[in-house]
Amino acid sequence: MMMARPLITTFFSALVLLTHLLHVGASPLAEQAPLTETDTTTFDTHYNLDTDTDTLTPSSDLTTNLAPPSWFTSTLLARRLLALSRTGTASTIFPSPIPPNSHTPPSLAGHSTTQTEYLADCDPHLPANDTSSESPRGLGNPTFLALHVATTFRNTAAGSNISLSLDWWDHVNDTSPLWPGFPLSEAGLPRVTLFGYVEPFETPVPEAVESALRKCFLEKHPDAEAWLPGKEGAPHSSYWARLRVEQVYWIGGFGGLQRIGWLNVSERSKLLCIGGGGM
């Protein structure tokens, strides 16, 4: 879709909670160019980057400045979207053939399925000496409290990879029209899809890591205390796992005014630890 841009301003009001935040800009559907030295050292300057507020105030030139954001900005925004997300749409593949003890119809072997899953951005909160991960803290691998009985995690345990889609569409009523008279539009809001595989944390989970995971996850999902790993009387058995992100596809909003395309994952791993707020 080819439309205009200022809708994203208010939408991003919450994306400043964990670290300084940048606003999504726009560009056509285009191949991603590698990040340049300029990209990695400068920010889009027409936004208030106050780290102590959950609002983002555009400068007076916002409505006339239609230049696209850098890929650096878009990468940081994708990271912020993950940091603020509580749920996501997980897509996996049913095994083929369907296991004989499964209740899944055999005709669904090899088909995809989507489920909404709880998640939390816990990587930045893990101990600095965490040996349960080969990746640096803050890399942006979302954490799951996985249930053995859940379709998503039954499929990943059987070898399926996973994609996880995140969006800000529930906040459309907190946004502003693209221009006077234009209706509020979910399609103008950002979304991102993370591609990779599910990796359980090593067991037994080190005490410091377990404590950090519980604190982080329960801040987003207090009800999940009922099915924490090893909890007596829990309705289902569970385990800690993370999505190891291998590729990221970003849609900043309307094409023609927002960045849309594949983020550079190797550069992404360098960018995600930039800034404060636990990143």
UniProtKB/TrEMBL annotation:
Residue ranges annotated for the CREG-like beta-barrel domain, each copy included: 135-260
Pfam families the UniProt entry points to: CREG_beta-barrel
Domain of life: Eukaryota
Keyword Signal among UniProt keywords: yes
Signal peptide: 1-26
InterPro entries: CREG_beta-barrel, Split_barrel_FMN-bd
Entry annotated with the keyword Transmembrane helix: no
Chain residue ranges for the region called Disordered: 93-115
Name assigned to this protein: CREG-like beta-barrel domain-containing protein
